[in-house]
Amino acid sequence: MNHVMSNGTGRRRRIEEEERDRERKRVEKVRRREERRQDREERRRLQKLEAKRRDDEQKMQQRIAVEERKILIAQRKLETIRLLSELFARIKVSLHSVITSVHT
Protein backbone atom coordinates (compact mmCIF):
# COMPACT_ATOMS: atom_id res chain seq x y z
CA MET A 1 0.00 0.00 0.00
CA ASN A 2 2.85 2.37 0.82
CA HIS A 3 4.27 1.72 -2.66
CA VAL A 4 0.98 2.75 -4.28
CA MET A 5 0.91 5.99 -2.35
CA SER A 6 4.44 6.92 -3.33
CA ASN A 7 3.59 6.11 -6.94
CA GLY A 8 0.59 8.48 -6.74
CA THR A 9 2.73 11.12 -5.09
CA GLY A 10 5.33 10.81 -7.85
CA ARG A 11 2.65 11.16 -10.50
CA ARG A 12 1.22 14.23 -8.73
CA ARG A 13 4.68 15.78 -8.50
CA ARG A 14 5.25 15.10 -12.20
CA ILE A 15 1.89 16.67 -13.07
CA GLU A 16 2.64 19.69 -10.87
CA GLU A 17 6.06 20.02 -12.48
CA GLU A 18 4.49 19.88 -15.97
CA GLU A 19 1.98 22.53 -14.95
CA ARG A 20 4.79 24.75 -13.63
CA ASP A 21 6.67 24.24 -16.92
CA ARG A 22 3.58 25.14 -18.96
CA GLU A 23 3.00 28.23 -16.80
CA ARG A 24 6.66 29.25 -17.07
CA LYS A 25 6.52 28.85 -20.88
CA ARG A 26 3.27 30.80 -21.05
CA VAL A 27 4.73 33.64 -18.97
CA GLU A 28 7.89 33.62 -21.11
CA LYS A 29 5.80 33.75 -24.29
CA VAL A 30 3.80 36.70 -22.93
CA ARG A 31 7.05 38.44 -21.90
CA ARG A 32 8.59 37.95 -25.38
CA ARG A 33 5.41 39.19 -27.07
CA GLU A 34 5.40 42.30 -24.86
CA GLU A 35 9.09 42.86 -25.53
CA ARG A 36 8.52 42.65 -29.31
CA ARG A 37 5.58 45.05 -29.03
CA GLN A 38 7.73 47.54 -27.11
CA ASP A 39 10.51 47.16 -29.69
CA ARG A 40 8.05 47.88 -32.52
CA GLU A 41 6.72 50.94 -30.68
CA GLU A 42 10.25 52.21 -30.09
CA ARG A 43 11.16 51.71 -33.77
CA ARG A 44 8.02 53.57 -34.84
CA ARG A 45 8.76 56.38 -32.39
CA LEU A 46 12.32 56.68 -33.70
CA GLN A 47 11.11 56.61 -37.32
CA LYS A 48 8.65 59.40 -36.57
CA LEU A 49 11.37 61.43 -34.88
CA GLU A 50 13.69 60.91 -37.86
CA ALA A 51 10.93 61.87 -40.31
CA LYS A 52 10.21 65.02 -38.29
CA ARG A 53 13.92 65.87 -38.17
CA ARG A 54 14.18 65.46 -41.96
CA ASP A 55 11.04 67.56 -42.46
CA ASP A 56 12.36 70.29 -40.15
CA GLU A 57 15.71 70.21 -41.96
CA GLN A 58 13.99 70.52 -45.34
CA LYS A 59 11.88 73.46 -44.12
CA MET A 60 14.99 75.16 -42.74
CA GLN A 61 16.81 74.67 -46.06
CA GLN A 62 13.82 76.19 -47.89
CA ARG A 63 13.82 79.19 -45.54
CA ILE A 64 17.54 79.63 -46.07
CA ALA A 65 17.07 79.47 -49.85
CA VAL A 66 14.29 82.09 -49.69
CA GLU A 67 16.46 84.40 -47.56
CA GLU A 68 19.45 83.93 -49.87
CA ARG A 69 17.22 84.82 -52.83
CA LYS A 70 16.01 87.96 -51.03
CA ILE A 71 19.62 88.95 -50.33
CA LEU A 72 20.57 88.37 -53.97
CA ILE A 73 17.63 90.52 -55.16
CA ALA A 74 18.56 93.27 -52.69
CA GLN A 75 22.19 93.17 -53.86
CA ARG A 76 21.07 93.45 -57.49
CA LYS A 77 18.86 96.42 -56.64
CA LEU A 78 21.74 98.13 -54.83
CA GLU A 79 24.03 97.48 -57.80
CA THR A 80 21.37 98.92 -60.13
CA ILE A 81 21.09 102.04 -57.97
CA ARG A 82 24.89 102.41 -57.91
CA LEU A 83 25.09 102.03 -61.70
CA LEU A 84 22.24 104.50 -62.26
CA SER A 85 23.91 107.00 -59.92
CA GLU A 86 27.15 106.65 -61.84
CA LEU A 87 25.30 107.02 -65.16
CA PHE A 88 23.45 110.16 -63.98
CA ALA A 89 26.72 111.62 -62.68
CA ARG A 90 28.32 111.10 -66.10
CA ILE A 91 25.28 112.59 -67.85
CA LYS A 92 25.47 115.61 -65.53
CA VAL A 93 29.17 116.09 -66.29
CA SER A 94 28.49 115.65 -70.02
CA LEU A 95 25.59 118.14 -69.96
CA HIS A 96 27.68 120.57 -67.97
CA SER A 97 30.41 120.31 -70.63
CA VAL A 98 27.92 120.86 -73.43
CA ILE A 99 26.34 123.87 -71.71
CA THR A 100 29.74 125.34 -70.90
CA SER A 101 30.94 124.92 -74.47
CA VAL A 102 27.73 126.51 -75.84
CA HIS A 103 28.14 129.58 -73.65
CA THR A 104 31.74 130.12 -74.54
Give a brief outline of the structure:
This protein has 104 residues and is mainly α. 98% of the residues lie in helices and 0% in strands.
Which key features would you list for this structure?
disordered N terminus; single chain; 0% strand; 1 helix; 104 residues; mainly alpha
How is this fold's topology laid out?
Blueprint: H1 2-103
Describe the protein.
The protein is 98% helix and 0% strand. By secondary structure, the protein is an all-alpha fold. The longest helix is centred in the middle third of the chain and has 102 residues, at 2-103. Residues 1-5 have low confidence and may be disordered.
Note the total helix count: 1
Helix-strand makeup class:
mainly alpha
Unreliable stretches, pLDDT < 50, 5 or more residues? 1-5
Distance between the termini: 153 Å
Shape: rod-shaped
- Strand content bin: under 5%
Order of helices and strands: H
Mean pLDDT: 92
How many DSSP-defined strands?
Answer: 0
What is the helix content? Answer: over 70%
Q: Rg, please? A: 45 Å
Q: Main β-sheet: number of strands, strand sense, barrel status?
A: none
